[in-house]
Structures are given as structure tokens and as C-alpha cells.
Amino acid sequence: MQTLHVRGLEKSYGQLPVLRGVDFEVERGTIFALLGSNGAGKTTVIKILSTLLKPDAGSVCVNGFDLAGQGKLVRESISLTGQFAAVDEILTGRENLVLVARLRHLENARGVATDLLERFLLVKDADRRVGTYSGGMRRRLDIAMSLIGDPPVIFLDEPTTGLDPHSRTEVWNSVKSLAREGTTVLLTTQYLDEAEHLADRIAILHEGRIIANGTLAELKLLLPPAQVEYIQKQPTLEEVFLAIIGNHGDSVAAAGSDPTTVRQS
Amino acid sequence: MSTHFVGDTTVLLCRSMRHITRSLDTIITVTIMPIALMLLFVYVLGGAIDVGSAQYVNYLLPGILLITIVMGISYTAFRLFTDVNSGMFERLQSMPISRPSVLWAQVLASVVSNLLSLVLVMLVALLIGFRSSAGIWDWLAVVAILILFTVATTWIAVIAGLSARTVDGVGALAYPFLFLLFISSAFVPTDTMPAVVRAFADNQPVTSIINTIRDLLAQQSTGADVWIALAWCVGILVVAYTLATAAYRRKRG
Asked: DSSP letter at A4?
């Protein structure tokens, strides 16, 4: 069953065509990555799907509701985490969560907020103004705000841009656990490793069209067959960073104990 | 209008009120300029201005109250501009809430914060000798006109907050209003002005509003001014509301 169904989506800004017929589908409970360089139109797709922008042509079905006539029902089904953390800086973290819970008309807004503060490791800073938060904390709060009301579909627009590796891993883990619980996730990214790590299917958006769409394995088949080469693997700076920080013992130990690993190229 | 309009507006109004109470300095910033102008005119320039038998501070206060509102609505525009730029606006738009609530909450917050500022300015006026023998109904009429003026001009601020591209653009909102206030009966009677200037001053919106408030506080007959003032306020309200909702529809695509 497809939760997201996009056909022939077109959008121009004035004379400039941004989307020139975009088609894709996303199955329920899967993570779908829209991969593309800056300006490829990823954010435009997300904005159209979250009813912030009207398409020039094409049809979109979200969770069984038609974007054109059932905007309110679409908004009931989705939640958007935009490219920049959309949080209220003057309110505290807790107040931000309560605000969204009230606007989603939930019964127990305070309880929902407390649960999410725990889940996103924000309890200690819950009653500080968000203006004093770090970038990673803001992003965590931002994503926590998007989960309120358990929407069946979540849009994440470049969720880890500007985050340090530690916070990025945290975001990845929460996205994975969302999909495990049955949430459908559409995320955009310009980081290839992010798509590789998270996504069940990957689509490449280029010059307003989807030029490739499939699982990682399928996309790899598009290239000439792999050759096996032996190379020495140096720890990446990221692994060094995480080792020194000391919170990611497992992955660092694996990288450190075995200096030669097989890599396909 | 959706079923959640009242509830959503209340939640968003509480949010805006938190913004206002947490930055009380904005209320002070808003009131400093009108209070300074009031002191300047009463103690420096006012002695040389002939306003007939009235105390100059009594003559001046209505204009100062309107300046206070003009400074206050600039902050409403600024708060809306910040929401648009921080992404909070898009977050709200992508949620299943009543869409008009987003703007109405800002307008109501503007009314509440302006009333607070007006009380502050009024207290200073009382300290420096403002007195009125007006009764409760006259005062209520004054408050009603001030609220109507606030609501009407706040919708202009909403247009500015939604369509400005820079913070400086938002800040420029107050200038046309200050221009109207200086070329009006706010500081000096219009009858000493040259004919062309006087024609403008007598027939622009703020003069009739100021004259009405002044007459109500002095317990004099307002004559036709009150109807002209109400017509201007309602006219500004209708036009600004229409343009603001159009800007809002454009903004959310």
C-alpha cells in the first residue's frame, strides 16, 4: 500500500522551471530518500507535499488524501521538519512542545511534552529558553515537535545539515526507530552516506526530474560491475572525533582493531 | 471558519503574550519615544504654542497616545516577520490548525500590549499634570476608539510583517504614520498652517481621531469629527484586512 503517491509534479518560479514532471511512490513504514544537489528542487517537492506551495501540475496523494481537495486532511496526516529548525526561541523547550501539542488538539499536552523531552535527551534543558540551545539541541527539539500527535507521514528536509557527527547519529537513530514503528518517512539530503545509511529506497532528483529510483542494491547495478581491490583503511576524521569524544565505543573499536578492510570500488 | 478557530487563536495568543511579557523591554522601548516627545513638547516647545485656554499637556495627550500605538504595531510586524524567517510560520501552516488563527492571535496580542503601553504613557501624563473631568462613558468611548485604531493599523503591520524582506523594511513601517501625526492637529492647532498644508492636515485620518479623543476628554461636543474618525478607522480596517489576508494567501502558496 502506497502512503505517498506523486505523479507528474511540475512547478516553476516565474520563468524558471524547478520541477519538470516528478513521479515517485513511497510505501508505508519505509524511509525514502530524495537525493540531489543544491537547487535540484528537493525543498520544493517537500513544500508542495506539505501543502505550503501549490503545484502547477500533477497529482499528489498523501495517506489516501488528495492534496488538491483535502488539504486539511493531508495536514492531519503529516508533519514537516524544515531545512532550518523551526522553533520558538523565546519559549522554553517544554513550552515549544506543549504549544504544538495544543495546536494538534491533544488531550494531555504536558504529558506528551514530558515524554518527548525524555526521549530526545532534553530533560535537563527543558525549562531554558530555546534561544540558548546549541544547534544540535534545536534540531532534536525540532524533530521532537514534528513527532507530536504521531502523524503517519513525516517529511524531513535535510535533517542533518549543519549538525555535528554526534547529533547526526542521534537523528539517524530516531528516524530509523520511527520507520520501525510504521511511520512513513520522506527525507531529502545532499549527503550520499545519509541516504545509504537510512533509506529503503533512494531517488535521485536532478534538474527537476527523478533520474534514478530504487534500492541501494538496484542503484549499484546501474554502474559497471564492481572490482575487488585491497586497500588499507585509515580511520576517518569522523571516527577519530567520535573515539576521542568516547560515546561511540562500538563503531570505533571496529574501525580501530582491523586496519585493513575490504572495500569495493 | 473552522471549528478550532477559537481554541487555536487562544493557544497562539498565549504564545504571543509570553513573547511580550518576556521582553518587557519592548514595552519600554515602545513607550520611551512617545514619553520623550511628550516631555519635549510640554516642557520645551509647548510654552510657545497657543492652544487657547486648555493646558498644553491636555491638548497634546491624544496625539501622544496615537504615537504610542504606531510604535507598538511596529513590534507586531517584527514578531510576524521573525516567525516567517525562523520557519515557525511554515511549521504552523503545515499543521492542521485554523489558518486565520495565526493572524488573529497577532492582532489580539497587539491590542493587549498596546493597552499596556497606553496605560504607562497615561500614568506619566498624569504625573506631569494631565487632568480630565471626563466621565466613565467618555473614557470608554476613548478606549473604544483607541482599540479600533489599534486593530485597523495592526492589519497594516500584518501586511508589512508578511511582505517585508529585511528587518529594516519592517522598521520603516512607523515613518508614514509619524509623518501623518506631525502634519495633523496632534501638536499644534491646524489654523496657523499655510492653506495647502492645512487642507491636508484637516482632511487626513489622524486629525479627526485626535480631535475626537481630545473633545471626549475635555467633555466638549465632538461634532461630526467622531463620525469622520470612525469612518476612517473602519475604512482603514477593511482595506488593510483585505490586503493582509491576500498577502497571507500569497505567502502560503
From this structure: E
Q: Which residues contact B85 (CB under 8 A, 6 or more apart)?
A: none
Q: Do A54 and B92 touch (CB under 8 A)?
A: no
Most A CBs within 10 A among B89, B91, B104, hence the mutation to make, goes to: B91
Count interface pairs A-B at CB distance under 8 A.
66
> HSE on the CB side for A181, CA within 13 Å?
12
- The DSSP output letter for B191 is G
Q: How far is B101 from chain A (nearest CA, A)?
A: 11
Q: What phi and psi values does residue A58 have, to the nearest 5 degrees?
A: 110, 165
pLDDT on residue A1: 64
**What pLDDT is attached to residue B69?**
94
Is A91 in the B-facing interface, judged by CB distances under 8 Å? Answer: yes
Return the CATH superfamily for domain A2-86+150-223. Answer: P-loop containing nucleotide triphosphate hydrolases (3.40.50.300)
Task: Report pLDDT for A102.
Answer: 94
Would strands A57-62 and A2-13 be described as parallel, antiparallel, or unpaired? Answer: antiparallel
The pLDDT assigned to B244 comes to: 94
Cα distance between residue B197 and residue B249, in whole Å: 39
Question: Cα(A17)–Cα(A161) distance, rounded to whole angstroms?
Answer: 25
Asked if the C-beta of A88 comes within 8 angstroms of chain B's C-beta atoms, the answer is yes
A265 secondary structure, DSSP code:
-
User: Are A91 and B90 a contacting pair at CB < 8 A?
Assistant: no
Mean pLDDT of B136-163: 94
CB A225 within 8 A of CB A265: no
Distance CA A24, CA A231 (A): 38
Asked if the C-beta of A44 comes within 8 angstroms of chain B's C-beta atoms, the answer is: no
**CA-to-CA distance for A138 and B154, rounded, in angstroms?**
31
A72: confidence class by pLDDT, cuts 50, 70, 90: confident
Contact A104 B95 (CB under 8 A): yes
Mutation choice for B interface testing from A73, A79, A84, A103 by most B CBs within 10 A: A103
Domain count, chain B: 1
Q: Which domain holds residue B108?
A: 5-251
As a whole number, mean pLDDT of residues B103-120 equals 94
Give the pLDDT of residue A260. Answer: 44
Q: For chain A, what's the residue count?
A: 265
Contact check, Cβ <8 Å, A52/B90: yes
Tens of pLDDT, residue by residue over B232-249, are 999 999 999 999 999 998
Q: Which residues of chain B neighbour A86 with C-beta distances below 8 Å?
A: 86-88, 90-91
Instruction: Please report, rounded to a whole number, the percentage of residues in chain A having pLDDT higher than 90.
Output: 40
In chain B, residues with a C-beta closer than 8 Å to the C-beta of A71 are none
Q: Where are the domains of chain A?
A: 2-86+150-223, 229-265
